[in-house]
């Protein structure tokens, strides 16, 4: 696959995750080796990776995720409530809403759950802008997803469980100075390949030299 193909067809897969086909842990490890090449502020490399394959652990995290997702789906910011005045975009949002609800029901059955974490000196998150902090983890998480795509695996990016982050931390036995950045279900996928998703035209979001 070309770099462009990988970058434009790595989708958040929710409905087409194969819940029954096992995922080779060696492949997941290989994808994480790729992820560790991502940038890290001051080269500190404070990332840690929870890889859940145990059925009971996956089910426990899945229960928390389902609860958090139902709260989200009932909120004003839920995917299905966005762009209601635009029929074309609203139709897309309704499909996203439905797929998010589906993932909520099956998350605990996905063969592998990957949780990228960041160890923060002192334990507490800093006040103010945290872009630099999370910029030392989230690019690596995306690199993991891109690597998984090239190996025939499907993933999804979600952070809904973070509404109950401490509860998940207790399930996983995380120290107080370790913070979760995302939850990435990982599985083989059903059906055929993926294509680029519809997006806003570039010129609607591009600003040259200043906001204008």
Share of residues in strands: 5-15%
Instruction: Point out poorly predicted stretches.
Output: none
Morphology: globular
Number of contiguous helices: 7
Average pLDDT across residues?
A: 93
Q: Kindly name the structural category.
A: alpha+beta
**First-last Cα distance:** 37 Å
Q: Report the count of strand segments.
A: 5
Rg estimate, integer Å: 18 Å
Largest sheet: number of strands, sense, barrel closure: 5 strands, antiparallel
Helix content: 25-40%
Strand and helix order: HHEHHEHHEHEE
Name some characteristics of this structure.
212 residues; alpha+beta; 39% helix; 7 helices; single chain
Short description:
The chain has 212 residues and is of the alpha+beta class. Helices cover 39% and strands 12% of the residues.
Layout of secondary structure:
Elements: H1 3-9, H2 25-35, E1 47-52, H3 55-73, H4 87-106, E2 112-119, H5 131-134, H6 138-150, E3 153-155, H7 165-172, E4 178-180, E5 184-188
Antiparallel strand pairs: 1-2, 2-4, 2-5, 3-5
Helix pairs in contact: 2-6, 3-4, 3-7
Can you describe this structure?
The chain has helices spanning 3-9, 25-35, 55-73, 87-106, 131-134, 138-150, 165-172; strands spanning 47-52, 112-119, 153-155, 178-180, 184-188. It has 212 residues and is of the alpha+beta class. Strands 1, 2, 3, 4 and 5 form a five-stranded antiparallel beta sheet that branches. The longest helix has 20 residues, at 87-106. The N and C termini lie far apart (37 Å). It is globular and about 45 Å long. The chain contains seven helices and five strands.
């Amino acid at each position: 696959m070309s770099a462009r193909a990988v970058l434009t067809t790595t989708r958040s897969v929710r409905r087409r995750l194969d819940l029954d086909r096992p995922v080779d842990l060696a492949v997941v490890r290989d994808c994480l080796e790729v992820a560790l090449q991502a940038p890290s502020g001051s080269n500190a490399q404070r990332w840690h990776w929870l890889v859940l394959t145990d059925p009971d652990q996956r089910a426990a995290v899945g229960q928390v995720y389902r609860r958090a997702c139902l709260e989200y789906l009932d909120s004003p910011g839920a995917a299905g409530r966005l762009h209601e005045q635009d029929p074309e975009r609203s139709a897309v949002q309704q499909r996203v809403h439905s797929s998010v609800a589906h993932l909520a029901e099956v998350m605990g059955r996905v063969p592998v759950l990957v949780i990228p974490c960041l160890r923060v000196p002192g334990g507490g998150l800093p006040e103010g802008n945290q872009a630099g902090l999370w910029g030392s983890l989230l690019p690596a998480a995306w690199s993991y997803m891109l690597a998984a795509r090239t190996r025939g695996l499907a993933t999804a990016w979600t952070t809904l469980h973070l509404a109950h982050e401490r509860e998940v931390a207790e399930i996983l036995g995380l120290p107080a100075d370790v913070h979760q950045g995302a939850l990435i279900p990982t599985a083989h996928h059903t059906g055929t390949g993926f294509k680029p998703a519809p997006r806003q035209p570039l010129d609607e979001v591009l600003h040259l030299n200043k906001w204008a």
